[in-house]
Amino acid sequence: MTHRSALFAAVLGLGRAGANIGDHWIQSDYCARVKGAADDKPVHFAATPDDEPTVHGTADGIKACAWHCLTYTATQALAVGAGARVLGIRLHPGAAAAALALSFVTHYAADRRVPGGLLETLATKTGKGNFWRLADHGINGAYCLDSAWHHGWETAAALVTTIGATTR
Length: 168
Prior knowledge:
Layout: H1 4-26, H2 29-34, E1 43-45, E2 54-56, H3 58-87, E3 89-90, H4 93-111, H5 118-125, H6 129-133, E4 135-136, E5 139-140, H7 141-161, E6 166-167
Antiparallel strand pairs: 1-2, 3-6, 4-5
Helix pairs in contact: 1-3, 1-7, 3-4, 4-7
């Protein structure tokens, strides 16, 4: 029997890799730009510099964010599932499904970056508003706080995933 902390560490590493790939390689440019669109703050998107930009509001923002979160979560599922198989870890299906649902919901809550959205509000209320707005000296505060949010929830999801996990 492998120690539970080793199972957790393996699942966390696999999930983190899947999340990073899903967030940066799998996410389309369209989703990355449009997922924060709102009717009162529309996003203008052009696939190439030569294209005429299209205008996107709340409905498109919701769809783009949901699609991104779906592909992000699927990438995590693939990374954790394949990696667990290679490592001889047997995951409990219910625990894995709950962890993926947690990942999807918390990722959507953070990435639907409408003005005054969840992360911006949390940053302001916790005294991190200036850091949230920082985009200088090689640092983007909003990106850093977004990343920290995701890492925290990925850790919680890894803990959930390892409930009932065993080795083969």
